[in-house]
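Key idea: predict the complex, not the pieces.
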Amino acid sequence: MAVCEINGRRVDFTALGVEGEMPLLWALRDELDLKGTKYGCGIAQCGACTVHVDGEAVRSCAFPVAACGGKKIVTIEGLATSVNGAASKLTRIQAAWVKHQVPQCGYCQSGMIMAAEKLLRDKPKPTDADIDAAMSNICRCSTYVRVRAAIHDVAKSA
Amino acid sequence: MMKHHTLSRREFLQSGAAATAGLAVGFHLPTSQAQVAKSASMAGSAEINAWIHITPDNRVILKFARSEMGQGASTALPMLIAEELECDWSKVELSEAMYSEHIKRNRLYVTTATGGSRGTRDSQSYLRTAGATARVMLIEAAAKQWGVAAGECSAANSMITHAASGRSATFGSVAVAASQLKAPEKVALKEPKQWKLLGTAPPRVDIPDKVIGKPMYGIDVVRPNMVHAAIAQCPVFRGKLKSIDATSLAAVKKMKGVSDVLEMGEYVAVIGNNWWRCHQGIKALKLEWDVGANGNVSSASIKKYLQDGASKPAGVAKTVGDFDTVYAAAPIIHEAEYYAPYLDHAPLEPMNCTAEVKDGMVTIWVPTQSAEGSAAAAARAAGVAPDKVEVFRQQLGGGFGRRGGFQDFTRQAVELAMKVGKPVKLLWSREEDIQHGHYRPATVARVQGALDKDGKLVALMGRVAVQSILERVRPEALKKTPQGTLDPQGTVSFDDSAYAIANLRAEHFYATTHVPVGFWRAVAHAQNPVFRECFLDEIAAKAKRDPYAFRREMLMGTDDTSRRERGILDAVAKAADWSKPLPINQFRGIALQDSYGSHAASVVEIEKRADGKLKIKRVIIAVDPGHVAHADAARAQIEGCVIYGLTAALYGEITIKDGRVEQSNFNDYRMMKIGETPEVVAVLAPSGGFWGGMGEPPMAPLAPALLNAIFAATGVMHRSLPLSREGVTFA
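Result:
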């Protein structure tokens, strides 16, 4: 049934008593206590809940547990380890986020970082148009100017 | 299952978050979860004063009493202390100033409220003084030990030095002795030119945790035996629950993970072991509401009511000269009516609060702009005295004014915790959040003005029809006039304008509707500047005057306000190269507005595309806040205000139909995204001599500068917002 790997750990949602219709977001937050993935809208509009499922950026508020079977899932908590191995130092994107002082309230930033990671894997040198297309996350504080600058900075040093 | 749950949680803590958290060295912002450890780490520290604790091993621990909602206050405010204390900034630690301590010790931290762009400007004096006072006491303690004159000693980098003898001591080694000295009554503060830390941009202390997904927000709180709550509130404000369909109720009570359904008057709550399960329960309930007398109210009926209010004499907030006589005789007159809609704050973290009521004590974990406001709401809900409440302030996933004066979420969490008898984490759905806001009030303004034969503005009248926000939180601020009650916030931009206008009248029509209104970022300065600054461009165009020159000639006074307003208008014009023409098909608008103690001006540059769409190319905002505490956080506030303000101007509207809000989520309450973001030029132009705000002032001139740019491009002044409803489209 819904056995998957989350941040390198085997998770059996059926054994945990999690129903298949539950969105992955709420299984992460309220069943596995992985609170870094955020709830913002519940209808895949804002991107605060973005995680990686088999390398794809997925809005976990609209991705049911039933669809997780056999998948490798990475959340913000596991991102550094998945990229850098056991040392789990900050990823280059997280480091660029600190360098450019991107977050304000920070609530959307887990999702932003997960989306940016996916973008840069696909397109190591993204254009502004690539960024506009891939980064559809909502940030109410408006960190957009710095998100763009940080992504370009990472691309430059790649 | 509980066992699995616990094991899984421990596994995950060991894998990701805990390991990366170790990277965030140096500065640590306390979270409620870390509270016990933080208190323990302060053991053995000496309290020099309310704000400053120093340990024997020379760790300097500074108290942070306001709220961090992304504006950088948790870095900027400790900087104010550290500048005068002369401590080693890189080794400073932060500690949450607890509400209970604040109350027990006679409001030790002055205030915990964080709103009105007040964090820095209101606390800079006592925070800098606290730092200077502690420094004097530490030096005195060292000088006593050494038997030398305090005046021969100096402090830097958490060390005291007596240069003549070459002796030095750490702050930590004399902290206990210093804490026993009498605090000096007067201390001299540094001149701004002596600052080493203030005005610079050290890395913000809250950012490292925010890039690793550390649980720190209200929504992340976990307590032993905690249950979750989702709610549905009466869709028509002021209504209440009539009944729950019995079949649906029975079915929901049997749903997996649901432990209870509670009827709470104006709302219904489903309690359970996972928020999503509770939310499914709420959606499955068939609810009948008693909507009261407001079930027919609509945006159109409210707008008509406001227009009627704005068309007849109303409460006079200010009068200078004789507007009516001059207007009646002037060679050029102009009149316009403007409209701004209701707006919701929509911070990305929906409203939430975790509450526990036990043995007569109420404890709340809440993302709040005011610990005191939250405590008051909790105390009222539980029927206890304010000193029976403890508040653990969480990081805010956005505030923008929603999490301050109106604490409905806190009240509800406490009510539910009392009913359930366990800790309850209440989380509103996004839909509840948007449909149960405390909205920026819908506003109609009628503006009249007159030019003399030389094209100079000689008369201006602004009559603003708008609901009062203060009537619910500070009714004593309302004023009675022969024409009726007025709220002093209603007529800002008209009654406090720095422009030299010989004949002026500002009036407020005191509107009342059933729609709750609140403090939306920049409050009245979010919409009133449109009414004044767009009107100025309209009337200047009648005399074919340049909008910059037209404004500037009204700011030639020698008083501080005129000088600063002129200065910031010049600064933005210079940054925008106003004197040079723009390329073909590009246009610009300018606007000026002081607010929250600061002066701000904006130029917006747009391009008119062949397909009729407009492209916002560049937004320049210049702010003179007097002094700047943290330069990069100040710039980030300008960047933030640009998108918050443009989102409102382009798309933002909350509309009412059948007494209830029509919008429900980000699919119909549209937000700007990265692809729509223009180039932002943030100009900080501190002129010294005063301290103003930064969180809201950049908003004030933005919308009118945009509308004035469109006016320049198309000849049409869009007097009604949002622009999307006016048929204006953007590339």
